[in-house]
Design goal:
379 residues; alpha/beta; seven-stranded mixed sheet; 18 strands; binds magnesium ion
């Protein structure tokens, strides 16, 4: 069965109190739209993004910078219903099932999408929902309670909402009542709405505080680590810093290739996770590490972090050397490190400084490096 989805990003987001569309605000190094898109793309043959004309270029660029592109970009209407209505004509003939999703729900997950698709295949509808844990009151305009519905019968409804294409098209053609979700529209045609298990984390970004909460759900627990290393400069050694071979009259002395920058980065990463240090992980008494490239050690350290359920946020490092001049090599070092850590280059900062002739770095006796790393424990 051919599944397509419609992502709605055309809301005005007044409660976010911000000029930029909330689905395009920075979130976890991306934005809500791209996070939704990535998950839905794993399950859908095509995606239509509904947006405001003024957001079109920004949205396309945001998706493109993360390797994604929608099949159609459609402008929204004056309300949610009109926005969905504008997108429906772009569904191809072969499409059987449509998932409608709020672009402001970045925590959509694979399980929820699969539940929605399976229910829609079976029953024609599938709506993500969660139990309600608060007691809900129905009140009049003066805040006087009129009734208390039984909590067991209540469900909070989310998106994605899945429908057979013919059902959702017919609902939008025949019902003109303003509804806050598509399942209400379909229910008005007398079609049973099947609820499926959603995810309590699948919140809708409404206020600025929701961005912090979503970021926490996406990243988990945040931790910070510091690393420091120093090596002696010696004749007859190749100088390697950040995985870059640098032309110089001396190189750093050590059991491995003595890449002092990478060693500081490894210690910052392991330190953030309280998993010891480079000496514990790769003892210099072990012959298998003799002459080894420190980039191999970094790769191994990343895999240790991954096994402990951590992912890397960003790195900030400083190299301290009187000579040679290191700044021309920094972009290549950043590319090398970001490639192994699996993060973007702009999340790897490397600076170089001298000590104005003071200390062992200043006299050229050695080179040192500091690094700080932020990591996240995945929830
Ligand atoms: Mg070292």
């Amino acid at each position: 069965m051919s599944v397509w989805s419609i992502i709605l990003t055309a809301g005005n987001g007044t409660r976010m109190n911000c000029d930029v569309n909330k689905t395009l605000l920075p979130l976890a190094g991306e934005c809500s739209l791209s996070l939704c898109f990535r998950v839905l793309k794993r399950h859908c043959e095509g995606i239509i993004v509904v947006l405001r004309p003024e957001d079109r270029d920004h949205a396309i660029e945001m998706l493109r910078s993360h390797g994604m592109n929608a099949d159609h970009y459609v402008f929204g209407g004056k309300n949610r219903q009109e926005s969905v209505h504008n997108a429906l004509p772009y569904l191809p003939d072969e499409c059987d099932i449509v998932l409608i999703h709020d672009g402001a729900r970045p925590l959509i997950d694979d399980n929820t999408v699969v539940n929605v698709i399976e229910s829609t295949k079976k029953y024609g509808t599938g709506i993500a929902s969660t139990p309600v844990y608060d007691t809900i009151k129905i009140a009049d305009q003066s805040s006087i309670v009129l009734s208390t519905p039984a909590r067991e019968s209540l469900r909070a409804v989310q998106t994605p909402q899945g429908f057979e294409k013919s059902i959702i098209i017919k609902a939008h053609e025949s019902i003109k009542t303003d509804c806050t979700d598509d399942s209400s529209l379909v229910a008005m045609m007398g079609i049973p709405i099947h609820l499926v298990e959603g995810n309590p984390h699948n919140i809708k970004l409404t206020t600025k505080e929701d961005l912090f909460l979503a970021s926490y759900y996406l990243h988990g627990d945040q931790r910070i680590g510091h690393g420091f290393d120093a090596h002696r400069l010696a004749d007859g050694r190749q100088l390697i810093l950040g995985g870059v071979n640098i032309h110089f009259e001396k190189g750093l002395l050590g059991h491995s290739d003595a890449d002092v920058l990478i060693h500081a980065v490894i210690d910052a990463l392991l330190g953030a996770a309280a998993l010891g240090d480079i000496g514990k992980l790769f003892p210099d008494s072990d012959p298998q590490f003799k002459g080894i490239s420190s980039m191999v050690l970094l790769k191994e350290a990343v895999s240790v972090l991954k096994d402990a359920h951590y992912s890397v946020g960003n790195i900030d490092a400083t190299l301290i050397a009187q000579r040679p001049r290191l700044s021309p090599h920094i972009p290549e070092m950043q590319r090398n490190i970001s490639g192994i850590l699996g993060i973007s280059v702009d999340h790897v900062s490397i600076k170089a400084t001298t000590t104005e002739g003071m200390g062992y770095e200043g006299t050229g006796e050695g080179i040192s490096s500091h690094a700080v790393a932020v990591i996240y424990r995945n929830l």
